[in-house]
Amino acid sequence: MKNNKTIIVVGGGPSGLMAAWVLSEHFEVHLFEKEKMVGQKLLLAGKGGFNLTNKLEGVSLASKYSPNGFLDSTLKEFGSQAFRDWLFSLGIPTWEGSSGRVFPEKGITPAQVLTKILDSLKSRGVVFHLKHKLESFNLKPEFLFSYPGGKLEIKPDYAILALGGASWASTGSDGRWVNMLNDNKIATIEFQPSNCGVNINWPEAVKLFHTGKPLKNIVLSVNEKSSRGEALITDYGLEGNAVYPLVPEIRALLKKNNFPVIKIDFKPLNTIGQLIQKGKDAKANAASYASLFNLNSVFIAVIKAYTNRSAYGDPAQFAEKLKCIELPVISLRPIEEAISTVGGLSLKEINPDFSLKKCDNIYAIGEMLDWDAPTGGFLLQGSFSMGYFVGKNIIRKENGTMI
What we know:
Shape: elongated
CATH superfamily of the largest domain: FAD/NAD(P)-binding domain
Low-confidence stretches: none
Strand content: 15-25%
Helix content: 25-40%
CATH class of the largest domain: Alpha Beta
Distance between the termini: 24 Å
CATH architecture of the largest domain: 3-Layer(bba) Sandwich
Structural class: alpha+beta
Strand order of the largest sheet: 17-16-13-14-15-12-18
Mean pLDDT: 94
CATH topology of the largest domain: FAD/NAD(P)-binding domain
Number of strands: 21
Largest sheet: 7 strands, antiparallel
């Protein structure tokens, strides 16, 4: 039998859907979404490969999130294996790629994943209110929604805000809700892009002949932070899974008005000594570099563009350049192009259970909070975990077993 208290969830993204699912077993749950359907960002995340989570667990998983310690308790309660088990219970088996990324079993589309989740929510009695836009709220708490038929005011026992960040505005995540929080004297932080490309002033030859081509199996570094993977050359600079983990460091440097430099190691499996030894080959010259060092035309073009003629012509100096080409970064790409954002609701405004310090019956979760994680399944895992954690905390609170 369900508790007679009413809970509203505002926002139909991953964290909101999970919170509604957990709570619906014990409470009457109403989910409000301003768009015509829920889960749009979940579907968009599935384009090009639906990376749901990652194989990492425990400390290894928690270390991917910042600020440090922010999600430790959350991930301990609902980690990647727990997430996969939950998906399996809904009829969504998963598989693990060689990189540790976890995907739905081959043949299962993002739309089918969303349908399975929604079918389960409906079977548990969750009431959906689509095209309902949150207009205002206060800390009593009282919430006012507008919808095509008029306005709706509701006074829930608990409310969970899952309003999203500021990237991918087409899905409804536009960050405009910050004014409502500020009206309630709740502090917010300016949104900034994360997991995004970087602007680099490429020489014209690189842009003209190599835009759209990848730099594979490289290591990129900024200061002490490094990332291994692939980067795509674009007309504006670089993007890709080797770039995104460096964005927090680049963003911090730009904030201090410093000039970030990305260093490329084209041969991470070789030492400088090994490469220099290869360069001592009697037949070594600029024309033989491609075969001698096993370099493709894209590598050669980038190295040549950032090496003076003297160094490029000397095999020993060229070998050293293979381990360190420096690319000055001008800026980050705009929020509209970012996969995720940092900023939003300040973490100083929430308690460890994600309730607001100014009203412990209102909770905030998901990308509306000021946290960060790289791609690779960590963003979705973090959002689903927060939804689960908050749901369980409200249940424990009502049962008098809050921990």
